[in-house]
Amino acid sequence: MKIIVTSIYVQDQEKALEFYSKTLGFVKKHDVPTGEFRWITLVSPEDQEGTELLLEPDDHPVAKEYQKKLFAEGIPVTMFGVVDVRKEYERLLKQSVKFFMEPTEMGESTLAVFDDTCGNLIQIIQQ
After folding, report:
1. What is the CATH number of the domain that holds 17?
2. How far apart are CA 62 and CA 44, in angstroms?
3. CA-wise closest residue to 42 among 60, 23, 59
4. How far, in Å, CA of 62 to CA of 48, rounded?
5. CA angle 92, 18, 6 (to 5 degrees)
6. Which of 6, 39, 99, 117 is 20 to 30 A from 58, comparing alpha carbons?
7. What is the C-alpha to C-alpha distance for residues 121 and 127, in angstroms, rounded to an integer?
8. CB within 8 Å of 72: residues ≥ 6 apart
9. For the chain, how far is it from start to end, CA to CA, in angstroms?
10. Which pLDDT value is given to residue 27?
11. Cβ–Cβ < 8 Å for 58, 10
């Protein structure tokens, strides 16, 4: 068994697609209309056959509540691995990404947390 798709609830799929592709650098894999929403998935440019990230609309009240509470508590919804957290932090700062936690060493890892502009906190980690 392997993970093929994981979801992130987003407030606006188009805005999320722009942020995750243009700002973070993920590659769009699928963009299929599904009624009033779309099945939008992205993949890492380094592993285009790997796990897909689904930009899931937060249209359901439970999804909205889940997303709001995690954000309010400062809990990231997911974690992305990077080679160099400090370098990625500087790159994203230049693109006006708002960080909630600057690069911080925690044991053998260094991590940082930022706002994805779509209702979520995202953690990046260098292990």
Report:
1. 3.10.180.10
2. 28
3. 23
4. 31
5. 90
6. 99
7. 19
8. none
9. 25
10. 98
11. yes
SS3 content of the chain, % helix, strand, coil (to 5): 25, 45, 30
Structure letter (DSSP) for residue 44: B
- Contact present, 40 and 55 (Cβ < 8 Å): yes
- Per residue in 22-32, pLDDT (tens digit) is 999 999 999 99
Residue 97 DSSP code: P
Note if the pTM is more than 0.85. Answer: yes
pLDDT digits (tens, 9 = 90+) for 37-53: 999 999 999 999 999 99
Distance of alpha carbon 44 from alpha carbon 25, whole angstroms: 8
The residue count of the chain comes to 127
Q: Edge-to-edge, what's the strand order for the sheet holding 99-106?
A: 78-81, 121-126, 109-115, 99-106
Residue in 125, 124, 115 with CA at minimum distance from that of residue 19 = 115
The label of the residue with tokens 């889940």 reads 66
Place of tokens 């925690």: 106
Q: Which residue range is the domain that position 57 belongs to?
A: 5-126
Report the number of distinct structural domains present in the chain.
1
